[in-house]
Design a protein that fits this description.
alpha+beta, DNA polymerase, domain 1, hpI Integrase, Chain A, three-stranded antiparallel sheet, 45% helix
Length: 429
Amino acid sequence: MGKADLPHQNTPFFLAKKRRSRGKLGVQLLSVQPHQPLEPQPKCPECGNFKVFKDGLRYTNQGPIQRWLCRSCGFRFSESNGKPFKQNKYLFKNAEQDGCEGPIASRAKSAVMAATALTEPITTMAMAMGDAQQDVKGRMVKFLWQLAKDGTKPNTAKMYEYILLNLVSHGALLDDPETVKEAIARQNWNDKTKALGVSAYSKYLDVMGGTWKKPKYKPERKLPFLPTEEELNCLINAAHKRLATYLSILKATGMRATEAWLLKYEDVDVENNVITLNDTLKHGTPRQFRVKPQVIAMINTLPKKGEYIFHDLEKPCGLINFAKAFRNFRKRLAYKMQNPRLNKISFHSFRHWFATNEYHNTKDIIHVKERLGHKSINTTLLYTQLINFESEQCYSAVAKTKEEAQKLIEQGFRFECNIEDVKLFRKPK
């Protein structure tokens, strides 16, 4: 086989790509493009790692520029040389619009004719996949409507939908419990997530009138990661305005991530520095929080684009995307500060810290239970780790009258005991 027999490097070809996404299955034919050599990946300017991947385009006046995201430190950057992303001049669409009759256009047209026979079986497969997807879609609509009629919370219904569609995308058939078991067993999930998958499919069978033998996944209880206050403040101080306000509310109130995400401007009392939580999760009790004036001031600096504080109904940005951006930011900060503990901090870590700190200050587990909105005291016990926040050194003071005791309490002293008609107070240094 000689050199002349080798195919030309610019020979156009068709690429059939099957796109699979949440709720959508189909086949898309991409444009006719010539073969191009692989471009070398750039080096991350933050950590110098070559493990980067493309993260969309940045559109400028000079044209689109490729964006990159580092896998190691999470730093997001554009091409360092400022070279715009070149459009392929060999596209068949451009050749047809320009009226070209050269060899490039002729090779593109011949490729289109040759690919017609290839696309017919692919189209047939796409139609069959579309029919199966329509069946799954119809079943999910019926399932979600029945959950709404039964009074299931919308967030719980969305969680069931997300888990079931994830299992379907990994080959599970909702009519065959054995395929669902295999799909759950193949996932690289922990036992807690697998138990949620079993619970979601069990709820689906209850609604649709089916039965199955549940697989047993018993998640082990572990003590949650508890960050320090300095680490939480480090995240808040380094974050941008919107994220810093969100994290400050989590630290000051101990709300769940979704509860803080659904806060409205009408829930904030600017005059009294009070935040009212009415839209609770897990059938929690409504509650109010008195926060520092700095938190209220941070809320007032955010642009008001609707009734919600952190998202707009017309242009919604889901909490999942918001959490993903937080993880990328956390990764960059952990590399910058050389503190790997920052990568363990999640939105829920602020709630753990709030509960532990509240119990340390009050020593009242019932008070902590009400502040967190729990229904059971056993759940509150998981949040209150007995950690001593105080140092061994402290200040001591004595009060003989009520006025002296009142002044000491206002200064941050805490009552310890009575000795010879004298009250002893202490405060950590």
